[in-house]
Amino acid sequence: MEFRLIDRIHARTAQVREDVRLGIGDDAALLAVPAGQELAVAIDTLVEGVHFPHGTAPADIGWKALAVNLSDLAAMGATPAWALLALTLPELPAAAQAARVDGLADGFAQLAQAYGVALVGGDTTRGPFTLSVAVHGFVPPGQALRRDGARAGDLVFVTGTLGDAAAGLQRLAPSTDPDEEKRRGFLRARLNRPQPRVAAGLSLRGRASACIDVSDGLLADLGHLCTASAVGAEIEVERLPLSSALLGSCDEAAAHDYALAGGDDYELCFTVPPALAGEVQADLARLGCGATRIGRIVEAPGVRVCGTEGEWLTPARRGWDHFADDAAR
Amino acid sequence: MEFRLIDRIHARTAQVREDVRLGIGDDAALLAVPAGQELAVAIDTLVEGVHFPHGTAPADIGWKALAVNLSDLAAMGATPAWALLALTLPELPAAAQAARVDGLADGFAQLAQAYGVALVGGDTTRGPFTLSVAVHGFVPPGQALRRDGARAGDLVFVTGTLGDAAAGLQRLAPSTDPDEEKRRGFLRARLNRPQPRVAAGLSLRGRASACIDVSDGLLADLGHLCTASAVGAEIEVERLPLSSALLGSCDEAAAHDYALAGGDDYELCFTVPPALAGEVQADLARLGCGATRIGRIVEAPGVRVCGTEGEWLTPARRGWDHFADDAAR
């Protein structure tokens, strides 16, 4: 079955790249990294019931499995190139299984084609529904965006808006109010079809002092960046970029909670020296994702959140922890 | 939890390689492929209850998760370099979880160190017990061992012995007979601690016309090689290399069945033109794994098995299919 499943996926994700010397069908793929480039590699797993709710459309799952990995490459400023897919599926009647596999492959392929990513290898096994994707990209030596370069005085930015995906997860049921349903549709799309900020990551190369993608929640991920850089950060809650869909579907306090601690945003959180802030922001605006300044890097460790009255807040949650938190999903 | 688990694994698998420019701890690892080498990449998943029985020692699972992937690199004639590990674990009390993670890491690290493989990235999530490992190795352009180069007249070889792992899976319980228990220990070790034939794969570069590793069973995997090469093969059952432990623990017919259709051997099955057979065999003997000629490549498609009286056999099973075969494990 391994071979037929992978063939089925491969047929729907065919992406011709000259640097793929031997693709799917042998014991390993053979690939040529361009001369003078470093290879950026990452792996991420999605588990049914943990990273996506039961009943999620297969095409959304296929998209997201690749998107969360491309987001890791984006956060490094790498150009995506190749992917491997390890797919574990429970038994289903043949027709239902084929429909599921085709759906997964279609969603995966849609995003892969958008970024010219070739699926070069895979493995399919029977078992609980999980997908592990490994991605490979290129970056010129010394130009990768790392977590450890933030310095006190740098400004903290995020792309796009925050909190939408976490709010979408709480609003999976359709609403009878057409306006509310429109908002929910937007929030669910942010949950199910995250847009990896690849172009933003490339634009930040050589300019951002540090970068991370927001997968576990802003406070958690900015905390990782600060720890790696041996600095701290102060965030102003009223600067958090919030979508109108989010603001329309809950009160402001809940929106702030989603934005600070909600996972699955897959926006980039990055730091830049103040002198570069204007040009970086203008470039990201031209790319369509925009970037909002939300705070600054300080010497004292930890991430602190400043409220609308200038007071320090104590957020109820710091972030998502898929592994420890039984109730989160 | 993701970070602590991966740190724990990383601490036990630290392997210094100059080509790892940035290892675990950022959104992606940064790696330098040596100039003039192609990159060989593969991914394989192990699922509890499918690829290893419940109750398997964590160190054996960690070893095997890397071994089955290094076997893919061996089958390409690639030199192993880097690995990514995506680990999904069900909840356990903290002490038991730590013991399991440490066991997994120890087994993984033992094999990684033997081959100088650096763990450069990972992901840990909560969910059903599965491990996906992606491996990366190097091979000079044009020298990889592929599946599609076998030609009629080539001789078919396998390294080591066949059928031990499948027999070991059927003999997990200890025996009260010390001789039988010694045999079972050998067979179980072949199941739990497969030795990837990396040195054999390197030795075969530029000489074997085709190569595959025996993971699903000889008939199935040789069948894949033949399909890729648009040829067929004839195997002589009495030439199958069988260990004394296997022969001592079952009758000859069962031993042949294990050797022909048993999975998890992780030996290399390869083809060579007759003129090179002697020197290839001598070189593999010097490497300690040995290689046995078991048949030859023919023009007619399919894999046929010739019995001890010269008759054509119809094997009961063709191989393991983890995905389709509910009862196999």
Q: State the strand order across the main sheet of chain A.
A: 8-10-7-11-9-12-13
For the sheet with most strands of chain A, the description reads: 7 strands, mixed
User: How many strands of chain A?
Assistant: 13
Task: Determine the structural class of chain A based on helices, strands and strand pairing.
Answer: alpha+beta
Helix percentage of chain A: 25-40%
Radius of gyration of chain A: 20 Å
* Number of helical stretches of at least 4 residues of chain A: 10
User: CATH class of the largest domain in chain A, please?
Assistant: Alpha Beta
Query: What is the string of helix and strand elements of chain A?
Result: HEEEHEHEEEHHHEHEHHEHEEE
CATH architecture of the largest domain in chain A: Alpha-Beta Complex
CATH superfamily of the largest domain in chain A: PurM-like C-terminal domain
Question: Could you explain how this protein is built, in words?
Answer:
Chains A, B: Catalyzes the ATP-dependent phosphorylation of thiamine-monophosphate (TMP) to form thiamine-pyrophosphate (TPP), the active form of vitamin B1. The structure is a homodimer of 329-residue chains. Chain A has helices at 2-13, 58-76, 94-114, 164-169, 178-192, 198-204, 218-229, 244-249, 252-261, 274-287; strands at 20-22, 29-31, 38-47, 79-89, 118-126, 130-139, 155-159, 210-213, 232-236, 268-272, 291-298, 302-306, 312-313. Chain A has ten helices and 13 strands. Chain A folds into two domains: 2-139, 60s Ribosomal Protein L30, Chain: A (2-Layer Sandwich); 155-313, PurM-like C-terminal domain (Phosphoribosyl-aminoimidazole Synthetase, Chain A, domain 2), CATH 3.90.650. The two termini of chain A are 31 Å apart. The first copy, chain A, is α+β, with helices and mostly antiparallel strands and 329 residues long. In chain A, strands 8-10-7-11-9-12-13 form a seven-stranded mixed β-sheet. In chain A, strands 3-6-4-5 form a four-stranded mixed β-sheet, with helices on one face. At the A-B interface, helix 1, strand 2, strand 3, helix 2 and strand 4 of A face helix 1, strand 2, strand 3, helix 2 and strand 4 of B.
